[in-house]
Amino acid sequence: MALEEMMAFTTVVRTRGSNEMKKTHRARKSASKGRSKVLAGCALVTILALVGAGCGSSGSGSSSRSLAAGAPIKIGYLASLTGFCSTFSQEYVKGAELAVKQVNARGGVLGHPLRLIVRDDKATPNVGVSQARDLVLSDDVKYLAGTCSSAVAKSVTQLVSNPSHVLYSVGVADPSVFSGGPDSYAFDTIPTATIEGDNAAAYVRAHPRWKRVAVISEDYSYGYQVTAAFKAAMAGSGQQIISQDYVPSGGSDYSSYIDKLIAEHPDVVYSTVITEDTVTLVKQALPLGLFKHAKYFGILDYGTIDAMAQPPVGAYGYTYYPSASIYHTPFSADLQTLGTAVANGGAAGDAFNQIQIIAQGIADAHSTDPTAVRDALGGATVQTVQGNVKIHKCNHLIAMPIAMGPVVGKTAAQPFAHFEPLRLVDTNGYFKC
Amino acid sequence: MSFVTFVDQLFAGLSLAFVLFFSAAGLNLVWGVLGVMNFAAGSVYMLGAYMATSVVGRLGTSTGGWIAALIAVPVTLAAAGAVVEVLLLRRTYREQDENRQFMLTLALSYLVAGVVLLVFGTHFRTVSLPGFLSGGLNVLGATLPAYTIVTIVLGLLVTAAIWGLTYGTRVGLLTRAAVDDREMLGALGVDVNRLYTAVFAFGIGLGALGGVLIAPQGAVTTNLETTALVPAFIVVVTGGLGNMTGALLASLAIGVLQSFATLQDTTLAQLTPYAVMTVVLLARAVAGRRGLSIVFSPRKASPASPPAAG
Fold first, then answer.
1. ipTM of the predicted structure?
2. I need a labelling partner for B199 at 20 to 30 A (CA). Which of A46, A138, A242, B53 fits?
3. For A307-326, how does the pLDDT look when each residue is reduced to its tens digit (9 = 90+)?
4. CA quadruple A404, A406, A411, A416: dihedral sign
5. What is the pTM of this model?
6. How many CB atoms lie within 10 A of CB A166?
């Protein structure tokens, strides 16, 4: 039982006990003062015992109940199967399932198999928290992973750090989700918006002939955060950010936004428009001539550019998602079993990493206690699809490399749109611990 | 603002306007004649887009493939719509219960969404245009996508066809009569059941056509359902429930104003549809108090009453 529940229970006991005592007092006015003291004493002892039990069940204590030999370690997975990112959330589930399958094929962790329990958070914070709470309280889950939504992750992070003390592995870009420091139970699996913006600014600054920079982003928190980080990192560069525009997520027609960009005569357009919105933006930008008027630089994951009949060849893209084809690691080879489209999409690889990090943490801690696992993961180097990557102890952010390069079409060696030449940027330099 | 920018934004606005119009036309027609607010309209639009990716995927991105999609998808979904009207929707007319119609069409929207997920999966799909439509044309110094011009022309043709059907044919005459007095029309020996089925099927076909036309413009996702339905409702409410001319004018007003508003502030520009709707509703209320009628007035569509049993 969680501390919150236990405290609520003791409050009820305290209230009921008090009421009972009042009733007893009214009914038996003639009862001796000594008997009342005995009753009050008994109630106090009961309350103290329950409070003690409640305190004992908080924090590491809740997990101190060791799992029976061979009992499964349950991982609650929040997938936004409905809602704004439903189009790629099934891929998260596929990646998580694959990681669980691979870990279990190796005999599990500390002799325990992993068991995945998938819930739909609808990309909505109140639903996500409700599902997470139910997983923790009803299914006795000690490990949570997933969601595509920073808003959901932020709410779930507050839940897992206090009072539940459940370890949470998630790939979202909002840095405030991981502001809890080394005591937080939340771990990030992708670079934050700040790191993404810093890295993009470093690239633009390396091209001083791009004097006029237009920024186009998604009209929600991710877009605003990357844009803010990018602008901050561009300060003092001598290059001018001439505009910052936000397109509606899931929009069908971006023509007017593209025409506005063209009218502003930028040297480069920096875009943080993602996934299917990138497809819509690029498809409509090509005939309008945006790519002839300006350079295009932005987040372009392999799954997205390969889905386009006309990929934006010549544009300069980057991705921090673990597209399997970029890396040559054992886990990227595992991901390939899901097929090229899913393996390159990024979502499956991210979910794979989330589960893998939990499994490695448990193995490194030699314990299934989330607090011990948290302490083992802080500052550790973990195995991921991208290879061995460091988790920073001060903020639980992961130093995932960012893949960058000019977009080219299919080749004999790589029969899908990709970056060539490919450059992997070490993001360790962007961490301020 | 330079002249070229003006032309660019004007055509971008027209492009958006016809996207809006196609998403709203079917919804509006069904409301105007049947008095049914079809909450599955967004699903039909989405399904049309998905089916277009399949048809073009099988037949190739040639002109022939696209013409086949433009004909086959709306006709197929119109036929499915006719079946739904006969088997399900018709039963709700007798009760004159709008709640049942609402629940039924809402349930159908969920059903369609589920079928799309099962058949097409969750990942977005894309489809490209024939080569000659994928480029841009120079008009008055501005670059316009060839496909935008095709969409605008098709939109005008469809509007003209609806006008022609409504005001130049016997079916249109009967349809207008059905809007005014369905019972009288039935008493005169007209098979109102069949007329309703035809109108519903046509409305579904229009929605599907909108889906086919939007498919090559971007990614086809399940989000199309909601991204189409909300603006479609705004257009229908702004244009006047059941008023096709009003819907076209509302689409044009919203599309063009939003396009030019984008030049000022892209975030505020997204509020344009709501601003236009608010202004029109206020104007309609003021005009109504003064006994005036404006172009954006709703058609007099009473809840569907039971047509002659049959």
1. 0.81
2. B53
3. 888 889 989 999 988 788 88
4. positive
5. 0.80
6. 25
